[in-house]
Amino acid sequence: MTQSWVTVVVGFLSAIAGVAGALGAQLVSARQVAKQAKVERDAQWDDRDRQERRASYARMLVAARLLEPTVRVFESDAIDRALTALREAAADVELANSQVWDDHASEVLDSAERWVAQALREGPTSSSFRDAQARYRATLVELRDRMRADLNNHDHRPNEK
Q1: pLDDT at residue number 159
Q2: What's the confidence (pLDDT) of residue 46?
Q3: How far apart are alpha carbons 103 and 121 in whole angstroms?
Q4: 159 conformational bin, left if phi > 0, alpha if psi -120 to 50, beta if neither
Q5: How far apart are CA 88 and CA 108, in angstroms?
Q6: Model pLDDT, residue 87
Q7: Most exposed: 2, 114, 142, 150, by fewest CB within 10 Å?
Q8: What is the block-wise mean pLDDT of the chain (161 residues), using blocks of 10 residues?
Q9: What would the 3-class secondary structure string for the chain be?
Q10: CA 113 from chain center: how many Å?
């Protein structure tokens, strides 16, 4: 027969091994839950960021498109209001995605201001007015295409390298 102390030691070691196994399983499970929660938080952040960028891009495009009929009416107060709306929308784009701002949005704002200046200086029938208008339209198309590309890029994550 085995001595009783051997039975006690084996029982004690079995209990410790059981507790250690249970704790190890809990740690592994907790790590998996934490990883899953991080993935879900990142996905929510990405969705929210994309929605904010989409909203700022839409405001910019609407303001940019409203400028053209306003310039055709040729009322300076209305043109000033439309340019102000475009500047405010451009600021939203600059904050939402500085790369889109650096690449194209600033060009749209600059070409809009040059176009309005041409309209006020030479009138809407001059060839320089039409040239400035064509440049404005071209930069607006480039901006729209860049915005679409940015929104279609699902891997967009600012501040990560």
Answers
A1: 45
A2: 86
A3: 28
A4: left
A5: 13
A6: 93
A7: 2
A8: 78 88 89 89 87 91 92 86 93 83 84 90 86 94 91 59 39
A9: CCCHHHHHHHHHHHHHHHHHHHHHHHHHHHHHHHHHHHHHHHHHHHHHHHHHHHHHHHHHHHHHHHHHHHHHHCCHHHHHHHHHHHHHHHHHHHHHCHHHHHHHHHHHHHHHHHHHHHHHHHCCCCHHHHHHHHHHHHHHHHHHHHHHHHHHCCCCCCCCC
A10: 26
Q: Give the pLDDT score at 72.
A: 81
- 111, with CB counted inside 10 A (0-12, 13-18, 19+), is buried
CA pair distance 85, 1, nearest whole angstrom: 94
Phi-psi region of 110 (alpha: psi -120 to 50; beta: other; left: phi over 0): alpha
| CA dist., res. 155 & res. 161, Å (int) | 12
Q: How many CB atoms lie within 10 A of CB 106?
A: 16
Compute the distance between CA of residue 90 and CA of residue 56 in angstroms, rounded to an integer.
Answer: 8
Q: Cα(133)–Cα(71) distance, rounded to whole angstroms?
A: 10
What is the per-residue pLDDT for 3? Answer: 80
pTM for this model (two decimals): 0.69
